[in-house]
Amino acid sequence: MIDPAPLIKPKSHLLFVTGRLAKVSVEEIVKELAKTYEFEFTVAVMPITVAALITPRWLVRRLEVPEQVTDIVVPGYCEADVQTLRDHFAARVHLGPNDCRRLPEWFSGKETHANLDNFNIEIIAEINHAPRMPISKMLRIADQYVTDGADIIDVGGDPLSRCNDIGDRVRSLVDKGYRVSIDSFDPWEVGEAIKAGAELVLSVNSTNREVALDHPANYVVIPDTPTDLESLYSTIDYLVKHEIPMVVDPILEPIGAGLAPSIVRYHEIRQRYPEQPMMMGIGNLTELTDVDSAGMNMLLLGICEELRIEFVLTTQVINWARSSVKECDHARRLVAHAVAAGTPPKRLSDALVMLRDPKLRPISDRVLKSLAEEIKDNNYRLFARPDGIHLLSAGLHLSDEDPFRLFESLLREPQSDNVDPAHAFYLGYEMAKASLAIQLGKQYEQDRALRFGMLTVEEDLHRVKRTSRHRRKKEIVDEQGPKGDADQESKSDQTRESDDQ
Question: Dihedral through CA 320, CA 323, CA 324, CA 329, nearest 10?
Fold first, then answer.
């Protein structure tokens, strides 16, 4: 986690540390920041190609800090041993972002995420048609639901046949410490589930509400039909009379079947019963709409938070809703913070921004031109821009919208003799990521995973780890000569690799 941006005081002089390739970009960005935040600055360009390879131990031996400097901003890659720098330099040392293009948001404080520990909505996660699967499979699904944030596991019943081992199923979940609800209109199944430890029953209306008298538990109350609120009021009054605890669900309807009126009914019930616990079955919308579920879950959880609806029922049957439980867990935290603070849930977290990225940091023509002139080695750098993929190396700058044509152009170049099969595979993999980033409007960073919010799968950077030792040793020898401290550096390569990345 990077540090907060430094508190800018009058006459502050900030020293920004970077590598050769980012020199122009850093100068361009910091010049504008200095106008906004009114500070003096110096850019320290270290004798190394990329800032990702700077480590604190390496930096303390090479960084010269002018006397007027009050604050030093080092790349986020120095996180592992930043205290070494703080102990060594008199000026205050700040751990900035990995990417210099994020300096503006760092200074604005937008890098600091809100505390999202609190929430008010409980997630009931349904295991659809649980009686049709082995108990072992049901338990695996429950484990994943709980890991993703579910509070209650709902055993979804089979309306076509009775589940004779329903008690064993519920008991197996309760024995693992899970809270359980049963989704069934069969009085026998309800009774067996409650005896086994189920705490919530879905659902009762005027046709089966008597079951609550024989099997005391907490019951979800629904109308006989979604638009029949009088039947809902009647069942609520019946359970109140018999002192049966309940959760009211007016039924959320899918788009095309009366979505808007059903949301209005939730508001009406909340007005009529201000203290009565309520539930919304959001799966009726996420499972029955051809759209990625994250945005829809966020919107529905926002409605629930504002109406003080304490429970949501969701499931993960359809593929586009396969991460709904996890999405709901994050969404309930965002909406709780937003409603409590009275502000929109914006710039709090990018975990639910999956298809596109929150913000792009395009590389300018000037910076691209500078990089093309500065690169002196034959390693290939890839950049994605709206006009296509750019490939840079020593004396080489190729670009094309089509990665296949770009690779063909590369192979026609004299210096392409270093493209062996492994290198070709690597370039193809990276170009595919770059092409996808352009298509979706995502930020592409070479050797870094594309960001898909909470679904991001980090890459292990095996290529960088494999080649960084050779690159660092070559740079040190080139820059200091064979009698410099290259031997000392190479001895620490293995321990430094994780830091460098």
Answer: -160
State the Cα–Cα distance between residues 34 and 158, nearest whole angstrom.
66
Which pLDDT value is given to residue 346?
A: 87
Amino acid 221: pLDDT: 98
CA distances to 190, 192, 235 from 214, in Å = 10, 12, 16
Q: What's the whole-number average pLDDT of the chain? A: 88
Taking the C-alpha atoms of residue 224 and residue 244, their distance in angstroms, rounded to an integer, is 19
Q: Is 291 helix (H, G, I), strand (E, B) or coil?
A: coil
pLDDT value of position 286: 96
Q: What is the pTM of this model?
A: 0.78
Distance CA 440, CA 293 (A): 17
Task: Measure the CA–CA gap between 128 and 80, rounded to whole angstroms.
Answer: 45
Provide the b/e sequence for 232-260 (b: ≥16 CB within 10 Å).
bbbbbebbeeeebebbbbbbbbeeeebee
Residue 498, preceding bond cis, omega within 30 degrees? Answer: no
Neighbouring C-beta atoms of residue 378, cutoff 10 Å: 14
Cα gap 220→200, rounded to integer Å: 7
* Cβ atoms 63, 73 nearer than 8 A: no
pLDDT of residue 454 exceeding 90 = yes
Which amino acid is located at 1 in the chain? M
Contacts of 223 (CB under 8 A, 6+ apart): 205, 229, 231, 232, 235, 250, 251
Quote the DSSP letter at residue 77: G
> Residue 304 phi/psi, 5° resolution?
-60, -40
Q: Which letter does DSSP use for residue 154 in this model?
A: E
Name 169's Cβ contacts closer than 8 Å, sequence gap at least 6. 130, 131, 135, 138, 155, 163, 196
Q: How many CB atoms lie within 10 A of CB 53?
A: 22
Q: What residue ranges in 188-282 does DSSP mark as E strands?
A: 200-204, 218-221, 246-248, 279-281
Phi, psi of 206 (to 5 degrees): -70, -15
User: What count of other Cβ atoms lies within 10 Å of the Cβ of residue 178?
Assistant: 19
